[in-house]
Amino acid sequence: MAAAAERPDLSGLELQDLEARFHTLGIERFHARQVFRWAHKRGITDPHEMSDLSRDLRLRLASEFSVTTPRIVSRSISSDGTQKFLIQLADRRSIESVFIPDTPAMTFCISSQIGCAMDCAFCLTGKMGFARNLTAGEIVAQVRLLAITLGLHESRFNIVLMGMGEPLHNYDNTMKALRILHSEHGLAVSPRRVTLSTVGIVPGLERLAREPLMPNLAVSLHATTDEQRTALVPPNKKYPLADILEACRRFPLKKRNRITFEYVMLAGVNDTPDDARRLVKLLAGIKAKVNLIPLNPAPGIPYERPSDARVDRFAQILADRHITVSVRKSRGQDIRAACGQLIVEGGTKKTAAQQMALLMR
Ligand code: SAH
């Protein structure tokens, strides 16, 4: 029997890796596909419950692999139908994932890390600090748990990597998770239904550009000058606007596909007509669409949401210059499930502001 810490997560391996492990253990290869289907199609991750495997094999799997998979510990439902799930992991830490119905698609907003190291000035998750990366198994588990709990595992749904964390800061596990989710023996999620949202880590964008399995790309821009962007999105110091936009210009896009640029709107900070005009200039030559996100305010976040009129004015300037623009509707604010509002206890650093944010939830 393998020591607990060395046991790989049975539901965190790609099919080919599971096959290779089975081969090394002297277990027939075809069982790997059976087990993969149990875990990812039917949501059964405990080998004891995999009823078409022999008793011997079930015991063997339970001793060779880790089978403590994430579980939902609470679920809140917003008046607008959005649902937030608190999911507990094997080390008893927790993460949040959100289900957003009828956008018009069914959408799962999932996390890639516990906390976040990016520390964007307006985001509550950043206030938690960074605890650790999620494993591929933990990223996949969020989708599986939500899909099965909501009875959607046989239907089409979208996935947005817009929960807690920066997916390109956890590159390998995120991409592995997308491959597991894509497998025809699992949930068979098409990469066209997946959107990865990033602050714009340039080496990560360059790697992503070469991936065979390419999700849609969303880049969190939020400002039109380096000075302002560095104040709002600290990684901009290392990866300034020009470098990010150059990587976007080179990013391979399929026909009719575009890069989404997210732009959080902060009243009196980045919401002026001049900002809008600068944004138009920055995006020249990029197949872009812009998603304006009026700030979801939260305790401890020192910004305000602009008025609808101000948001409309900004949107109109973009539209007049032929940029496709949408305004993200805030969903699930009453259960703190909206963008930038995901936070759980147990992060690493806690300043006075964070303590307050936690207390005032
Ligand atoms: N790290 C990734 C995913 C983050 S969440 C990224 O930065 O893109 C997805 C979006 O929500 C990001 O664009 C993020 O900047 C935005 N967001 C964060 N806090 C917010 C808030 N309080 N109100 C509105 N949007 C917010």
Commentary on this structure:
It is a single chain. This protein is α/β, with parallel strands linked by helices and 361 residues long. The chain is built from twelve helices and twelve strands. The strands form two sheets. It has a ten-stranded mixed sheet, with helices on one face. The longest helix is centred in the middle third of the chain and has 14 residues, at 136-149. The relative contact order is 0.12. Residues 347-361 have low confidence and may be disordered. The structure holds S-adenosyl-L-homocysteine. S-adenosyl-L-homocysteine binds next to strand 8 and strand 10.
User: Gap between N and C termini, in Å?
Assistant: 44 Å
**What does the radius of gyration come to?**
21 Å
**Number of extended strands:** 12
Strand content: 15-25%
| Ligand identities | S-adenosyl-L-homocysteine
* Number of distinct helices: 12
Strand order of the largest sheet: 1-2-3-4-7-8-9-10-11-12
Class per helix and strand makeup: alpha/beta
> Regions with pLDDT < 50 over 5+ consecutive residues?
347-361
Give the mean pLDDT.
92
Which percent range fits the helix content?
Answer: 25-40%
Elements, N to C (H/E): HHHEEEEEHEHEHEHEHHEHEHEH
Shape: elongated
Taking the sheet with the most strands, its summary is:
10 strands, mixed
Question: What is the structure about, briefly put?
Answer:
The protein starts with 14 loop residues before the first helix and ends with a helix.
